[in-house]
Write a structure and sequence with these properties.
The chain has 385 residues and is of the alpha+beta class. A hairpin with a 2-residue loop joins strand 3 and strand 4. Helices cover 28% and strands 33% of the residues. The two termini are 35 Å apart. It contains 11 helices and 17 strands. The longest helix is centred in the C-terminal third of the chain and has 15 residues. The strands form 2 sheets. Strands 6-7-8-5-1-4-3-2-9 form a 9-stranded mixed β-sheet.
């Protein structure tokens, strides 16, 4: 890697140990417990995520388990749990959420040792309550949960499950299915990105800092994330152990409508734009997902002309990466490989990032321009650029 490139990397790599030291310890988080999406048809959505992404059937709650207003299917792949929830009647909050936003992420649940303490600590610092601590029980033990609001209509639910041995949560039964396509190698959630309105980035970065004890890992301005036409700004917030990372994006001034503005228009407000999921073998994962019909953004043709000079030696075959559309970037800790799906529904809102880290702690700054050009090409086809 060139001296100039190494200097650029060093300039935006903030010294992770110092950053994590700044994160306060009043809200220890063990990891992401689950992500719940409100969707129009949970049964069909579950089939899609099983078929295309390799998730497996885990748990179910609905009419058969005593629920009268909704149905939920729970899917799992390694440490990732997705909950897909559909309302059974039109006159409830879930129906209103789907009517406004389309299919989208409602709950980002965080695994904690003490849900009541997590709730009390955040409420006294100014968080808005979603629901007060509750304890749910069945023959397998008990789970304590409590919730707070974050940007838009998104919420965080604190989940304490140290006294529970069941399949998922009380009220859920095991979901047995003969149809379980093989997994695709997805391991855990690396980060989740929130899109907020112009002027909202600092507000929500301060929310995570002041109310949840997070620290600012990296800040990107419109000089870092821009093309000829569009730009955005982003602050990456992290908790103390680095297991939870929330980049917060807002639009920046540009000649045309940015991807953030497009998202806000079609989601009709702030929300979670994408989930980045990690793999230990991105070539295998993307090969499998492409076979199963997952569509990925097209990388500009000249991207691979300079990537080797920029990132240096890597273990993977660059020809294979190019054939799959996988991008590469390096920081002073190592390198990463990443690729982005197209939106996974008709509204151009939610999508997924697949990432493999080979030591790198950053987010692919060197790929931003190519990525944004790919997104702009999709926007142009949709007539929303």
């Amino acid at each position: 890697m060139s001296t100039t490139a190494l200097k650029e990397v060093t300039n935006y790599n903030y010294g992770l140990e110092k950053i994590f030291d700044k994160a306060q310890d009043f809200l220890p988080i063990n990891g992401t417990d689950y992500v719940e999406l409100y969707v129009g048809n949970a049964k069909q959505a579950a089939h899609f995520y099983k078929t295309a992404f390799g998730f497996q059937s885990l748990a179910y709650a609905g009419l058969e388990t005593g629920l009268r207003d909704r149905v939920s299917y729970v899917l799992q792949q390694d440490k990732i749990r997705l909950v897909l929830t559909t309302p059974l009647k039109s006159d409830n909050a879930i129906s209103e959420h789907i009517k406004k936003h389309g299919d989208g992420i409602k709950v980002i649940a965080l695994w904690v040792d003490d849900a009541r303490k997590a709730y009390e600590e955040t409420i006294k610092r100014g968080a808005k309550s979603y629901f007060e601590p509750i304890v749910e029980k069945d023959d397998n033990g008990e789970v304590a949960r409590a919730g707070i609001h974050t940007y838009g209509e998104t919420v965080h639910i604190f989940v304490e499950r140290k006294n529970y041995k069941g399949i998922f949560l009380p009220g859920y039964t095991e979901w047995k299915s003969e149809y379980n396509p093989g997994w695709t190698g997805l391991k855990y959630i690396d980060h989740m990105v929130g899109n907020v309105e112009l002027g909202g980035m600092n507000k929500w970065a301060e929310f995570y800092a002041n109310i949840m004890g997070f620290a600012n890992l990296i800040t990107f301005d419109d000089k870092d994330i821009s093309t000829q036409y569009t730009a955005l700004m982003s602050k990456v917030m992290t908790n103390g152990n680095g297991r939870i990372k929330f980049p917060i994006n807002e639009p920046a001034q540009g000649l045309k409508k940015s991807q953030i503005e497009e998202y806000l228009d079609f989601y009709e407000g702030p929300g979670c734009q994408h989930i980045a999921v990690a793999t230990d073998d991105i070539v295998f994962t993307i090969s499998e997902m492409r076979k199963r019909g997952v569509e990925f953004l097209h990388v500009p043709g000249d991207y691979y002309d300079t990537v080797e000079a920029r990132v240096g030696d890597i273990a993977e075959d660059m020809k294979v990466l190019k054939s799959l559309g996988i991008m590469v970037d390096r920081d002073e800790e190592g390198y990463l490989l990443q690729i982005f799906t197209k939106p996974v529904e008709d509204r151009p809102t939610l999508f997924f990032e697949i990432i493999q880290r080979k030591g790198a702690k950053s987010f692919g700054k060197g790929n931003f321009k190519a990525l944004f050009e790919s997104i702009e090409a999709e926007q142009a086809r949709r007539g929303t650029l």
